[in-house]
Amino acid sequence: MQNDLMRNIPKVDALCALPCFDDVPAAALTESVRAVLSGLRDELQSGAVTEIPGVDELSERVLRAVEQNAIPSLRPVINATGVVLHTNLGRACLSDAAAKAAASVAASYSTLEYDAERGERGSRYSHVERLICRLTGAESAIAVNNNAAAVLLILSAMTKGKEVVISRGELVEIGGSFRVPEVMEQGGCILREVGATNKTHLADYENAINDATGALLKVHTSNYRIVGFSESVPLSELVELGRRHRLPVIEDLGSGALLPLERFGITGEPCVQGSVAAGADVICFSGDKLLGGPQAGIIIGKKKHIETLKKHPLMRAFRIDKLTLAALEATLRAYLDERGAVSELPVLRMLAATADELREKAKKLIKLLAELPREDAKTELIPSEGQVGGGSVPHQALPSWAVAIEPLKISVDELETRLRLGNPAVIGRINRGLLLLDARTLFERDFPVIARAVVDAIGGETL
Ligand SMILES: *Cc1c(COP(=O)(O)O)cnc(C)c1O
Known about the structure:
Elements: H1 2-7, H2 12-16, H3 26-46, H4 55-70, E1 78-79, E2 83-85, H5 96-106, E3 114-115, E4 120-121, H6 126-136, E5 140-144, H7 147-159, E6 163-167, E7 173-174, E8 178-179, H8 180-186, E9 190-194, H9 202-208, E10 213-219, H10 235-244, E11 249-254, H11 272-278, E12 282-286, E13 297-301, H12 303-311, H13 314-317, H14 322-334, H15 338-344, H16 346-352, H17 355-368, E14 377-389, E15 398-407, H18 412-421, E16 426-427, E17 429-431, E18 434-438, H19 447-459
Parallel strand pairs: 1-16, 2-14, 6-9, 6-10, 10-11, 11-12
Antiparallel strand pairs: 3-4, 5-13, 7-8, 12-13, 14-15, 15-18, 17-18
Helix pairs in contact: 3-4, 5-14, 6-14, 15-16, 17-19
The structure holds pyridoxal-5'-phosphate.
């Protein structure tokens, strides 16, 4: 009986030849037909289905599969979590100018390594160096693939075979795979940890210095804070100590804010300019955290050290790509005018938004949900808490407002799943039986799409 059924499953070629598939590219069609038929075979075998669906039903399944397969794996989603630098959702959103700059360079030849004025070979690093120096006050600068690469490059080029002194309170792990002790090992230097987890004094560093010492390292504890009975040595004092012993002082700043964030009510995140002014020899930070640009690692500092880095063989392995460079240059340009930066760069704009502004923003979204039938869902505005994210500022919540949805005919988990599986996916947060859409990380241009997605998800079929 089952064998008979199996034999009656339509052949791949026969299905592919149906006129309704005339417009579907052959390769995509064959793949989808195979997938649908194999799914059908499984259903028959397991007994979940006891007869073969008609040709109309099968061709509909094939067309749905073709559509699904055409959706890119890496695609935009709507971040309704309220976490601004959401690591899993791609950290910083680029400004329009940065996205445009990357796109224009992507589809064209460019001045990547060409000096158009002189008509000769140029350097890819020249496009952002002067801008970074101007904005940070540093002597020299270079950009690489990401901040992890920056740290590894610095340690490899400047401290190989030497001891590097670091506080026990700063042996940071970022997102699982970046751990300061392991990066130091890869960089070929010897970790010389000093002090205690909660307290490290200047004397601890000084006592550890010997003939084998290559540098003093300070790492910003981006994603945790040691509070209570704690003490760390300010960068300026480490610099003083380094001077006395003719040792370079290196700082991994992590996020790398170019504007003081106190104005947004965010405290404890150091500014890049402060570290330059304190006199660190080499400083590195991310491009796609608080800076609000593309994934990159920015290294600034004394010219002699940056020159050493430029010549290191790892530089080629870590080099920054042209699309990134274009986006980075545009992002940095926005900072030339401070107010412009806050209005132009999505990360800063999201961080700057006050709770009152977010309440007004959420109100606009909830208005678009008015067409939801009352018996299907309840919606209300509620205060919410977001985060900076991206392993930055772990101890502070960002007060915000959210559209809260309580589905009445399906479970809140089902609603969350439907929104997540939609195209575009809407990623919200469940709290006490409500699905929250936090206004902080939403773009108003997406509101009609979000409203449509919610209405469809609530009125849709059970998955
Ligand atoms: C985030 C971070 C890194 C890694 O930076 P990526 O740009 O993600 O490679 C390194 N060090 C610190 C302190 C960080 O916060």
